[in-house]
């Protein structure tokens, strides 16, 4: 549970003005995140390179889960770079550990909208299917901005709100325009959105 006043219970009962139908990923379904189909569909290494992840960067993979994006990010940033994989779920972090943690990755447990990093500590913040789970989008996006160095970049990939067999229910998904607005309101600049697949979009922005 969260002490965030905007916390929304798993059954969808909202408190506070910022009510979203968010729900948390069930760690029991972690195998779904690591399926060959998902890898082929999302092409994580290609996506990370496309949004500007480069060798030598310090990167935060916020809501890293089992490490689906953490491992390819670690391969791209290489020996001169570093990846902080963060997640509030101890079970997800354990699932990530079980899959092997690359030498340049540090796993850290985070709070709901509290990241255990100093101000201006990374050049890139990556979110893989996390924004729709955040209890308070405003507090969460402000926290992401806080940990970015000047000139840093953010990318957030998430589900297009449409009904389909895979992924979270339509009501829990975020419209592209709303995702853009969340980051723009938090002070990110140059915020734009593009489709990555027919079911996924990626929002990028800078500080
Ligand atoms: C659908 S999973 C995606 C995991 C991974 N990024 C991927 O794409 O495979 C969403 C993850 O976000 C995490 N999460 C939920 N709320 C969060 C928050 N406020 N801050 C950071 N991570 C959060 C969950 O624990 C879960 O591991």
Describe the 3D structure:
The chain is α/β, with parallel strands linked by helices and 207 residues long. It has one domain (34-200): Vaccinia Virus protein VP39 (Rossmann fold). It is built from 7 helices and 7 strands. The chain has a 7-stranded mixed beta sheet with strand order 3-2-1-4-5-7-6, sandwiched between helices. Strand 1 (58-62), helix 4 and strand 2 form a beta-alpha-beta unit.
Low-confidence spans: 1-19
Mean pLDDT: 89
Task: Report the CATH superfamily.
Answer: Vaccinia Virus protein VP39
Widest sheet: strand order? 3-2-1-4-5-7-6
* Through-space gap between termini: 31 Å
Element pattern in H and E: HHHEHEHEEHEHEE
Give the arrangement of secondary structure elements.
Blueprint (H helix, E strand, L loop, with lengths): L29 H4 L2 H7 L1 H7 L7 E5 L7 H8 L4 E6 L2 H9 L6 E5 L12 E7 L8 H11 E12 L16 H10 L3 E7 L4 E7 L1
The structure holds S-adenosylmethionine.
Provide keyphrases for this structure.
207 residues; alpha/beta; Rossmann fold; seven-stranded mixed beta sheet; 7 helices; 7 strands; 27% helix; disordered N terminus; binds S-adenosylmethionine
């Amino acid at each position: 549970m969260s002490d965030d006043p905007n916390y929304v219970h798993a059954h969808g009962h909202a408190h506070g003005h910022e009510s979203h139908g968010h729900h948390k990923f069930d760690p029991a379904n972690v195998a779904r995140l690591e399926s060959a189909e998902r890898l082929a569909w999302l092409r994580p290494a290609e996506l990370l390179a496309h949004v500007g992840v480069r060798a030598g960067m310090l990167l935060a993979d916020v809501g890293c889960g089992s490490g689906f994006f953490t491992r390819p990010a670690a391969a791209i940033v290489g020996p001169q770079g570093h990846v902080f994989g963060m997640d509030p779920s101890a079970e997800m972090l354990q699932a990530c550990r079980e899959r092997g943690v690359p030498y340049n990755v540090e796993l850290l447990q985070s709070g709901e909208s509290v990241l255990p990093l100093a101000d201006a500590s990374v050049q890139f913040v990556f979110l893989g299917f996390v924004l729709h789970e955040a209890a308070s989008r405003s507090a969460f996006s402000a926290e992401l901005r806080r940990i970015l160095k000047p000139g840093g970049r953010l990318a957030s990939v998430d589900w297009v709100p449409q009904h389909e067999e895979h992924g979270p229910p339509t009501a829990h998904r975020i419209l592209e325009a709303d995702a853009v607005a969340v980051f723009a309101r938090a002070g990110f600049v140059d915020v734009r959105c593009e489709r990555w697949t027919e079911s996924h979009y990626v929002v990028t922005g800078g500080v």
